[in-house]
Amino acid sequence: MVIFILVYMLYFSWIGQCLFAGSIEGTSNFGTFGNSFFNMLVCMTTSNFPDVMLPAYAMSRWYAIYFITYLVVGLFLMMNLLLAIFYSNF
Asked: What's the pTM value of the predicted model, to 2 decimals?
């Protein structure tokens, strides 16, 4: 399940790089693949989520669909499944 979550984050990092290419958000948060993966990790842990999402949201409100989809599927579905697997094994 952890590998599945990492592949999910890698996929959305790649989509973010393609989506924000040539914009201010693309150069600041999604410039390199490592930088975009780190920002997707920040979004997944929700530790500093507004700093990643709000610059893109300021450009266009349609970019919020990308982040909302990422959070709903990743945080509320996959992370809860991972927690349930850990809980059932211990």
From this structure: 0.87
